[in-house]
Amino acid sequence: MSVSAGGILSASGYVVAQQNSTISSMLTSMVEQVRVTTGDHVHKGQLVAVLNDSLQRVSLSQQQSQLAMDRARVSEAGAMLVQSRLAFWRQSELARENLTSQASLDQAQATFDSDVAALKAAHAQVMMDQAAVQSAKIQLAETRIYAPFSGVVTHVYAHAGEMISPAAVGGFTKTGICDVVDMHSLEVSVDLNEEYLMRIHVGMPASVVLSAYPAVRFAAHVLKVIPVVNKTQATVGIRVGFDRLDPRILPGMQAQVLFYPAGVRRPTLIRIPTQAVHRNTNGKDFVYLIENGRLKR
């Protein structure tokens, strides 16, 4: 952290992706296919990996069979209820004419009440079976793993034939398929000494100089001041966003950020095509200019 004579603050940090993810599985299963490699561009919803689904298909078939069986029981219980209702009605008519005993009437009433309860229980069982079938379908769908957002695959962990699990089991399973980074969410994360906090505000203009391109200044601005002080280092986190993303900017790059206070103008940046930038044997970047009809480096 430094301060120039003109009041320009300077702090070091790293390029980070605000949106990145290790794509994993919610199941413990064997990997059958990994359909991406490091460096691939993926879009949201793209199939990334396929897991073995043998157990999930068997489970779904069992649940569907149970559902069909219990639906048949609903029909059976409904037919029995129709019969017991008629029997109870006949006994009630006979009882009015004193042509049957009270015991027979009570028995018909009990049978009717039992069949009503049995039909309700059968319907409840069907609802439980439907939920089980839906759960089995979800389990089967989870054997197909998709990208949660568009980005670039930065690392692949799992390969066909390996076991994968939401959590490591005895060190024999992988816990992730691959890492995906949204290259449109790149920004710079810096830690600023808390004594300079009052000089920083959201929207403040800044420039970013990457160690890989020391001669290039990328226009930027303060996105957010993290409202927490690291009491060990007495620093505050600052998120710095690029005014315009550039394909040369990559996650993990070391960066120096220059913060321009009010009254200090940020240097005007001249954008030139990447192809126009050359590099000499000393690793210095340069461009060719035409002055007075002559080529000048």
UniProtKB/TrEMBL annotation:
Domain CusB-like beta-barrel: start-end pairs: 188-259
Residue stretches making up the Multidrug resistance protein MdtA-like alpha-helical hairpin domain: 71-141
Source organism per UniProt: mine drainage metagenome
Single GO cellular component term: efflux pump complex
NCBIfam families to which the protein is assigned, alphabetical: RND_mfp (TIGR01730)
Coiled-coil stretches: none
InterPro entries found in the cross-reference section: Beta-barrel_RND_2, MdtA-like_HH, RND_pump_MFP
Protein name per Swiss-Prot or TrEMBL: RND family efflux transporter MFP subunit
GO molecular function list: efflux transmembrane transporter activity
Pfam families: Beta-barrel_RND_2, HH_MFP_RND
